[in-house]
Write a structure and sequence with these properties.
With 241 residues, the protein is of the alpha/beta class. Helix content is 51%, strand content 10%. α3 packs parallel to α4 (95-104), α4 packs across α6 and α5 (116-129) crosses α6 (144-168).
């Protein structure tokens, strides 16, 4: 029998102005062995991030004084090592809200209420993508369904970055860089066996389409033709027909 080693803990920062949300999320993550710091406003969250250097930031958008968009941008500007994965955990779920999340520097946009298994799947994926676990160890089976849904949401966010670049015509390099990071992260996650089998084909198709969009967006200025812009692949949620 081959012995396996437990994945080292992640450092997770939870920022939300509802104390009950902060406490319950922190308890869940601590039970799974992660190190957790919390903050209840944006200024405190930036300070905690500077000192704690989290791998993962779960950040509410509707904060007083500094909102989550501002906080995400400032944490990005800190240039922390390691570069944290910043996740919006919010009640704002409209398309424009997701675009604003992408512009602010969020990597994912999760709509409240978030199932606890989603947090567990996200942590497991992040451990895989940051080499904190041995690649020979498959992602825990109980996390694969949640992890698969997160991967499709990451794909959606990558396309949102490119949508913003295409619509505004500004900051293309920044958006393309973020979409490229998402593509590389998804490729790593897919290679780890994280996606459940019946959704893997859809994810592969989505990644191919994303790669084609990236190729066109990288063409020298003046050569981009919106008529050739590959459309998004329709992302089917689990259980949809």
């Amino acid at each position: 029998m081959v012995a396996t080693t437990a994945a080292p803990a992640l450092r997770v920062l939870v920022v939300d102005d509802y104390p009950d949300t902060v406490e319950s999320t922190a308890i869940l993550l601590k039970l799974d062995g992660h190190e957790v710091e919390t903050a209840t406003d944006g200024v405190q969250g930036i300070g905690r991030a500077t000192a704690f250097r989290p791998h993962l930031v779960l950040l509410d958008i509707g904060l007083a004084a500094l909102d989550g968009y501002q906080v995400a941008g400032r944490i990005r500007d800190l240039g922390l090592p390691p570069k944290p994965l910043i996740v919006a955990v919010t009640g704002y779920g409209m398309t424009d809200d997701k675009h604003r999340s992408g512009e602010a520097g969020f990597d994912l946009h999760l709509l409240k209420p978030v199932d606890p298994e989603t947090y567990r799947g996200l942590a497991a994926l992040l451990q895989t993508s940051t080499d904190l676990v041995n690649r020979a160890h498959a992602l825990a089976a109980q996390y694969r369904a949640a992890a698969s849904e997160i991967m499709f949401r990451q794909l959606e966010m990558a396309n949102t970055y490119l949508d913003a670049a295409h619509i505004t015509g500004r900051g293309n390099e920044r958006y393309i860089a973020r979409a490229t990071e998402s593509y590389e992260r998804l490729t790593t996650w897919l290679g780890s066996g994280a996606c459940i089998d019946d959704r893997a084909a859809g994810l592969v198709n989505g990644l191919r389409a994303l790669n084609e969009r990236l190729k066109l967006m990288r063409e020298p200025y003046g050569r981009f033709d919106s008529r050739k812009h590959p459309p998004r692949v329709e992302i089917k949620r689990q259980g949809s027909q």
